[in-house]
Amino acid sequence: MAKVILLSGSPRPKGNTMQVMETCGEVIRQEGLEAEIISLHNMQVRSCIACYRCGELGHCSIDDGLNEIIEKIKEAEGLIVGAPVYFGTARGDLMSALQRLGMVAGKNGGWLSWKVGGPIAVARRGGLSASYQEMLMFYFISDMIVPGSTYWNIVFAKEPGTAVKDIEGMETVKRFAGNVAKLIKKIHA
Known about the structure:
The protein contains six helices and six strands, in the order E-H-E-H-H-E-E-H-E-H-E-H.
């Protein structure tokens, strides 16, 4: 069965970003695909050190738990990333994870190519579009396929539980998650 990894970059295991990922996971499962949600909340992800040893090792030289996640992403057909917005940008450790993931994949045959997915930004107010665009850069340079929706994948939220009250934002990301699943099914038909 085709699988989508949903990666939550929030330090809050039950915060708004995780609630958005859980909603997207439900949509993917309703489309008949497997969805696994992974949270970075209990990890301390280091930044890429540009040692390029991943090309020799087949995995990142930094041993902080990210290699296990990278391996799951390698085996999946899709990747959706959710990030809370801090000070106008996507949370730093999530971007570090994406940069290391991109480096490992790129130095080992470019295995992210043709995986389907995209980013979702969650914030109280500002920085949503910038964070969404920041994360999109990872998808495009990795030769991945990003389906659209009826708006950009952004959700307004502050206190835990308020993301689901952003009706337009939640409908947008649900449509996006459904499009990810449908496109994966078409590619792998």
